[in-house]
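Re-run with default settings, no changes from the original entry. Doing this only to confirm the output is reproducible before filing.
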Amino acid sequence: MTPPRVVLDTNLALSALVFANGRLSALRRAWQNGRFLPLVSRATTAELMRVLAYPKFRLTADEQRDLLADYLPWCETLRIPEPPPPVPPCRDPFDEPFLLLALAGWADFLVTGDRDLLALDGTLPCPIHNADTFLATLAANQQE
């Protein structure tokens, strides 16, 4: 069975990477075990790189590269077409790259903790889930 194509928002990818023993470490294990295929674009990768460099995380440049190396090799990088596909109106313009990626990448899921994105569930061809719902879906699919 082909693994689902999934857009993870920056905060979820970041939490799965930075907090190795945290609640979202299951996401990291799942992508590294091929249970889903994360989708990234130039914009979403740039945002992740920018956030990893925040002083509050106290990550050296080498640590940032190591964390990216634990994510990006498992991802499919997509180019957003020009003109981009129309996306549903969203309150936060920083959410638009994730919507574009979900549409351009024919994502099976967009997974986020962002309330503005979660409120858009039903407006895309794929469901928008929080991490817990997505992990439960993965677990249920594995048992089938």
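The first strand starts at residue 5 and ends at 8. DSSP finds seven helices and five strands in the chain.
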